[in-house]
Amino acid sequence: MAEVIAIDGGYKLNGTVRISGAKNATVALIPAAVLSEGPVEILGVPEISDVAALATLLKELKCDVEIDGERIKVDPTHMEDMPLTSDAVNKLRASYYFMGALLGKYKRVKIKMPGGCYLGPRPIDLHLKGFEALGAKITYEDDTYLLEADELIGTSIYLDFASVGATINIMLAAVKAQGKTIIENAAKEPEIIDVANLLTKMGAKIRGVGTDTITIEGVEHLNGTFHEIIPDRIEAGTFLIIAAAAGEKVIVQNIIPQHLEALISKLKEMGIKMDVVGDSIVVYGREGDLKVINIKTQIYPGFATDLQQPLTTLLTQANGDSHVEETIYIERFKHCPQLDKMGANIDLEEAQSIVHGSTPLHGARVEATDLRCGAALVVAGLIAQGRTEITNVYHIDRGYDNIDHKLITLGAHITRYNIDE
Ligand SMILES: CC(=O)N[C@H]1[C@@H](OP(=O)(O)OP(=O)(O)OC[C@H]2O[C@@H](n3ccc(=O)[nH]c3=O)[C@H](O)[C@@H]2O)O[C@H](CO)[C@@H](O)[C@@H]1O
Ligand SMILES: C=C(OP(=O)(O)O)C(=O)O
């Protein structure tokens, strides 16, 4: 038996949807909390399975964890230096943030390889190089890393690529290192700033986040604090795309519009009408044909790779050939054959797709091969004729807080049930 999300397409969406806290910030904020010597309370936590997996890992570390709706309280006062080798590590990518956090706290960590979406190879060599530069010795055996240091000593670290994960992970270790660490060619994603803000409230000394040079002055003690997570720009972007594809008038609330400038420009270029009103964006349904656009994924503030897949579905409704180039994950195109099963016409080339539009879409049984492929298929199901059944929904549940409920509130026809595989 397997769970599916079933969508009966063709219903126009109207109303208001509220965006949850950012997954990619949350999954780093929770491991960051273990660096503290007192309780850390985080608000705006999305209800996603990545958070549940992190809570399991916190309990394995003997942290006290309370989750109450959108609030999590992590109390590491009585935590212990335990190995993280259970299956929960493989449930998400971000379990690797315990590497930096536990290395910072205990100067030692034993942890399995992380999981997360397969988007082609996802090495962690830059994280490891950073830890080594800080003084850690690393061994790898049976899918498990052991990182150990007598002391962490601040140093200069240049990242060959502005990796989100490596920037955060090195920051997590460096806040407890002796002396000054400088991360050059650091990533600038808003989630990194959010993590630095929490660490700063805990007593860390960090400067330059949001630029490509981050300077961290190590401290001995970090204290408990309180933090509210920024809104999820990828969930917000997904709902803007959904509204553009299937909406009449949809208001997407709790957005930081500056975080979405690249997507907003591209949607406007396609002919979608939108108004930014404070922290909300009102999207008006499409009238007539959508215009063809080209997109190229880039590090922030460029076009986000995580929105490439859902936007591809909208491109199937544009009149002509749209070119989509991936520069972050050159194999991130597994959604394309799934969309083809629904009537799309997409050609794949090295690191790019060419979407031949416009093509009407029809319901089919399709597979969410990864989280944002799942989002692309949800967009497709909402505009397809007939019923779309999406399998492997656990990928979608890793990163979208109550997506069915939010869409039903807007007027979508969605159910979940089990099917025989
Ligand atoms: C939990 C989380 O925040 N996930 C996000 C994070 O993933 P993640 O942190 O894994 O992404 P990175 O920014 O690290 O990866 C970007 C590129 O660098 C490469 N790389 C990365 C690290 C490394 O040590 N060596 C290396 O070669 C990766 O294979 C990839 O090609 O940023 C990605 C890029 O915005 C997003 O798609 C993910 O949603
Ligand atoms: C790739 C993603 O997540 P992760 O890095 O957690 O696998 C994503 O959020 O699109």
UniProtKB/TrEMBL annotation:
Residues 8-407 form the Enolpyruvate transferase domain. GO terms for molecular function: UDP-N-acetylglucosamine 1-carboxyvinyltransferase activity. It is found in: Cytoplasm. Belongs to the EPSP synthase family. MurA subfamily. Pathway: Cell wall biogenesis; peptidoglycan biosynthesis. SUPFAM superfamilies: EPT/RTPC-like. This is UDP-N-acetylglucosamine 1-carboxyvinyltransferase. Signal peptide: none annotated. UDP-N-acetyl-alpha-D-glucosamine binds at residues 93, 122-126, 306, 328. Pfam families: EPSP_synthase. InterPro entries: Enolpyruvate_Tfrase_dom, Enolpyruvate_Tfrase_sf, MurA_subfamily, RNA3'P_cycl/enolpyr_Trfase_a/b, UDP_GlcNAc_COvinyl_MurA. Keywords: Cell cycle, Cell division, Cell shape, Cell wall biogenesis/degradation, Cytoplasm, Peptidoglycan synthesis, Pyruvate, Transferase. It comes from the Bacteria. It catalyses: phosphoenolpyruvate + UDP-N-acetyl-alpha-D-glucosamine = UDP-N-acetyl-3-O-(1-carboxyvinyl)-alpha-D-glucosamine + phosphate. HAMAP family: MurA. Phosphoenolpyruvate binds at residues 23-24. Its EC number is 2.5.1.7. Cell wall formation. Adds enolpyruvyl to UDP-N-acetylglucosamine. Its main location: cytoplasm. The active site is at 117 (proton donor). The modification 2-(S-cysteinyl)pyruvic acid O-phosphothioketal is found at residue 117.
